[in-house]
Amino acid sequence: MNRATSATTAVLTSDIPPADAHVQDVIENAGVYKTLLESTNAIPWKINWATMEFAYIGPQIESLLGWTPDSWKTVDDWVNRMHVEDREYVVNFCVSQSKAGVDHEADYRALKPDGSYVWIRDVVHVVRNEMGEVESLIGFMFDISERKAIENEMQRLNQELEHLSFTDGLTGISNRRLFDTRLESEWAHACTSGLPVSLIVLDIDHFKNFNDIHGHIAGDDCLKRVAGALLSVARRSSDVVARFGGEEFIVLLPDTNQETAYALAQSCAAQIAKLEILHGGSDVSEFVTASFGVGTARACERLSPEMFVKDVDRVLYRAKTSGRNTIALRDAEVMP
Ligand SMILES: Nc1nc2c(ncn2[C@@H]2O[C@H](COP(=O)(O)OP(=O)(O)OP(=O)(O)O)[C@@H](O)[C@H]2O)c(=O)[nH]1
Questions:
Q1: Do 86 and 211 fall within a single domain?
Q2: Residue 18 — pLDDT band, cuts 50, 70, 90?
Q3: Residue 27 domain-assigned?
Q4: Where is the GGDEF domain (predicted)?
Q5: Catalytic, out of 105, 146, 160, 247
Q6: 160 catalytic residue (yes or no)
Q7: Fewest beta carbons less than 10 Å away: which of 77, 102, 231, 252?
Q8: What is the pLDDT of residue 15?
Q9: In a domain, 30, yes or no
Q10: Where in the chain does DSSP place strands (E)?
Q11: In Å, what is the CA distance from 47 to each residue of 57, 81, 127, 139?
């Protein structure tokens, strides 16, 4: 039994005249409330607004945060034992809400004596006098570490899920979904900036034969290595190298003119050649090659991004029908 209850018992056993029965009730109730308050899982507290001192802090502070109630005297003790990244926002928020007389709550990391932190949700009630002036603040600090850990894990899993939903499972590069999303935003950007957008669409030559001769696992490995080669060429942060499906890849080059796009397609072809992946089923080279379609457009042209992609895909088909292992341009003749 704690101090509050024994004090109550002492009062009850003394001789109190009937006229003071009300006082006795008050004392008894105060004892009950104190017992209830100090047996909750949260830390109750009270701050005197005029002095900014703690008029009361529950003994639970010791078991939840590791500080003795004696060491928790002023608002500074609360502020200084808050994670530095949370401090400015939380203090400013709590002060402004308190000044406005608005009940509020704030989450922050509270420091323990061993240097670790506990996530706290402080729920604050503003007490005002008859004049409407703030007199004190009373509240509870709840340990929300478990909830925060779950929230953080959920956030991490969501980010991972989002990343996976934009990644091609085999090659690890972006997938079509990410490409479509980025193309749409780059198209909108190009529409306002007036800058050109370029696309390179490429397809590995005679890949069916490659699989038939070298096996599907070698085929998968070939796709991964080609993806790596493309990534080594399109290196600007705004560039997107994506697997478009099967053995077809697409490279989005924002703010890029046709000349540069063509040069980049040449570099892609050179990097693929450099891999020297033996291809027993190709009539164009002993190594793996690809055919390329390159296109450049101004977003202001009467063209949707989807139509643009289809257009460049048709250009790639031209490269295929004109012998493979070549680069075809949307606005020019097939170039060897
Ligand atoms: N190993 C492997 N093969 C794939 C994958 N996706 C698609 N393919 C194969 O890629 C081949 C594509 O064949 P086609 O579309 O006929 O084209 P191609 O043989 O490359 O001929 P051209 O494009 O005309 O040069 C098919 O045999 C598909 O099975 C994959 O993830 N892994």
A1: no
A2: low
A3: no
A4: 195-332
A5: 247
A6: no
A7: 102
A8: 56
A9: no
A10: 43-48, 53-57, 104-111, 117-128, 134-143, 196-204, 240-245, 248-254, 290-298, 327-329
A11: 9, 16, 10, 9
Over residues 266-290, the mean pLDDT reads 98
The residue whose CA has the least distance to atom 28 of ligand 1 is 208
Q: What is the mean pLDDT of residues 182-200?
A: 93
Q: What is the pLDDT of residue 17?
A: 60
The pLDDT, as a whole number, for residue 2 is 42
What's the DSSP call for residue 119? E
| Res 114 pLDDT > 50 | yes
Q: Which residues contact 181 (CB under 8 A, 6 or more apart)?
A: 166
More confident residue, 25 or 2: 25
Give 205's DSSP letter: T
Give the C-alpha separation, 245 to 175, whole Å. 8
Ligand 1 environment, Cβ below 6 A: 170, 203-209, 211, 216, 219-220, 223, 246-247, 320, 324
Contact 288, 219 (CB under 8 A): no
Q: Whose CA is nearest to atom 8 of ligand 1?
A: 246
Secondary structure (3-state) at 334: coil
Q: Can you give the residue range of the structural domain that contains 76? A: 40-149
Q: What is the pLDDT of residue 38?
A: 84
Q: What is the CATH number of the domain that holds 80?
A: 3.30.450.20
Quickly tell me which residue has 């390179």 as its tokens: 200
The reply to whether 243 and 292 lie within a common domain is yes
Mean pLDDT calculated for residue range 66-80: 97
Distance (angstroms) between ligand 1 centre and the Cα of 284 equals 16
- Which of 208, 289, 325 maximizes ligand 1 atoms within 8 Å of its Cβ, making it the mutation to test the pocket? 208
